[in-house]
Each structure stands twice: as structure tokens, then as C-alpha cells.
Amino acid sequence: MYLYIYDSCLKDKKYENLLTKIEARIIDLDMKGEVLRMNLLKNISQFLKDGIKKGAHTVIVIGDDKTFSTVLESAMLENIVMGYIPIDKKSKFAQIFGIPYGDLACAIIGGRIVEKIDIGKINNKFFLGSVLIENSHNTELKIDEFKVRVGRGNKIIIKNIDFEEENFSISNPTDGLFEIFIEKTGGFMSKNSKHTLIKTNEVMVTSKDSSIPLVFDDVQTINTPAQISTAKEKLNIIVGSNRKF
Question: CATH number for the domain including 32?
């Protein structure tokens, strides 16, 4: 039995044809299940708990990367397999998982190739991609017994997965490690950029003067202090043959 979580934006008329194709393909592949349409009043975790009691084995997110990241928290806590049907042709998560856009993703779900990949944990929340500290004034990173102080004007990126294809060999979601990049000047990929690369499975982030925000997966924000680590849990994700790992 499948559980489907629809992004709230799918109510928009511009997605009507796409959603019709997706739902028709789900029926063709005999992958019917219960549906939750996201809004502020719906409890994703309770929906999964109730579905698992009825025998559900997989939750399928129909939406974009932000939708996937939002559902990730509850899915990890319930230890259920995740699948993804992206409605954004530029989805970075879909690229990593080897999943095509729209109704074409249904065949990947039906093929059910499940991989276990690393998930990050920031305090008590999970993330898939990265944590960004845009303003790192007086920020300190504690890695094992070492401390790294980062001054004003620098950017810190702590990556579980690097979505830049040319850098993917550096950042792999199955090696149990984060990659920490500290930008010195300019943009991350600019000619004048200088960055430090540190590999670790745990880092404590603190700030001396005041609490600073850390944005993870471009969706949620947590303020320092923050303990960031590779989670003991693994994400069970349905992938395609064109996955990047």
C-alpha cells in the first residue's frame, strides 16, 4: 500500500494536466493508495502512522524539493521508504536520485529499486542536502578536539550531497561524511573564491556574539548553537538507474 502526499500548490489549475497524467499512470501501474493534500492543518506524521498501521510500506511525495524536504522529517521518524514524483523539471533531488519529471517518475516508483543513503541531522531535525551559514561573523566550528574560527564576511556550507555535477565525486551521500566549505571571497565557484574543505561526520556550530541562522535544504532555519551530524538512521529512497551514486 502506498501513501501519497501532494504539495498544496497542486490545487493550482496550471498543474491540472500534469496531475491527471500522474494519477492515470498510478492507476495503470496498480499503485493506488491513500492521499494527503498538504496544508497547515494536516498532520503528516499522523497520516504516516495511520497508514503504516493499515499496511503501508511507501510514502510518495508529489511536489518539489521543498515538499520532499518537509516530508522527510516525518518519514525518517516512521522509518518508511520514500519515493518522489517531481513537478519541477529543475529538481536537484530528482537529479541525484535518477528520477524523471512528472508522470515518467511513476515507472521508477513501480520498479522499486531502494537505496540507503546518508541523512544529516541538525539538532533534532533531518536534512538531505546541505546547511548554509550565510553570515558567519564570529562563528566557531568544533570538529573533534579542533576548533575553527570563521570571521566576518565568510560563508559556510556543510554538505551531505553536492548538487554540482562536477563536484559530486567530492560529496557522496553514501560515505558517512559531510564536506564543510568555507568561502573566503567572492562566489563559491568564482575565480577569486578560496575555500577550505573539511571532511567529518560531526560538527558543533556556535557563535560568540549572538545567535545566527543556519538554513538547511533551503527550507527550514535553526539558530546557533547547532549540533550537526550524520544520522544513525539511513534514508530508504526509491531511485532510478541514472542516479548519481
Answer: 3.40.50.10330
